[in-house]
Amino acid sequence: MLLGSPLTELLLLVAGAALLYAGAELLVKGASDLALAVGLKASTVGVTVIAFATTAPELFVSLLGAVTVSTDVGLGTILGSNIANIGLVLGVSALIRPLDVSETVFERHVPFMVLAALLLVGLGWNGRIGRPGGLLMLGTLVAFTVVVMRRIRQTQSGISTAERAEMPDASLRDVAAVVAGIAALLLGSQWLIDGGESLLSAAGFSDIFIGLTVLALGTSLPELAASVVAAVRGEAEFSVGNVVGSNIYNVLAVIGIIAVIRPIGVSPGVRGFEFPALLAFTALLVGLMYRGERISRLDGAVLVVGYGVFAYLLFP
Fold it and tell me: Comparing 101 with 279, which gets the higher pLDDT?
């Protein structure tokens, strides 16, 4: 961990925030241009490329924590991150600009987000997620990938020759922008995470609390940065697709892989508070999407306030 003087830590925070912004700009711009070049919709790119890329911090932190500290770190990080993605990331993005919800995301991808949350709660309700549960999650991830790939093929086949002739060519510059954006998001989020984890641990907070707070917020920063920049740039479909896809990958990929490596213990406290909170935020998001096919500024305010209440109740 990078610990030092208060000035050093402040410089790390500023540099991390700057990297997150720059990385988000590069990632959204590069992915948007690549999507146009190959005929994909912004929502599809948000669910796939951007969601998978911004899930990398959760994967890195959760796996490292599960192997070197305890599986509580990984479980807390994913639970906290998924709740933050809905309450904070989508809430703040909607406050900036109302977010339209594409029919494809709502009908094909949101059900997998709901299924992932139900699987996590259902498999963990007896206090333990073992290797069979992890394999079930990874199998569900394969099914989600098949659905996404099938949709991409349908989109590609529906492009006429005239439309294809008008499409811009994919460039190495766009690919480089995506790669550089991902790298900047990873490094920036890590700099922001470094101080808080050690400070909380030294103060005697539990692994699950550290995962639910500092690590969850820190690993959600790439989603927040990418979604906010997308909303500011008028690419709101990226924001919704990014959160839906990230919540799917967080559970099915990250928790699935951890459970295959080491069984995950689930404490009664998690089953009594964090599990219901995840289901409540997921149900709230689905309800808001179904009601108006867009997430309004008022909806965004409700999500942010809800997350504020959740964060307040976390503190002992």
Answer: 279
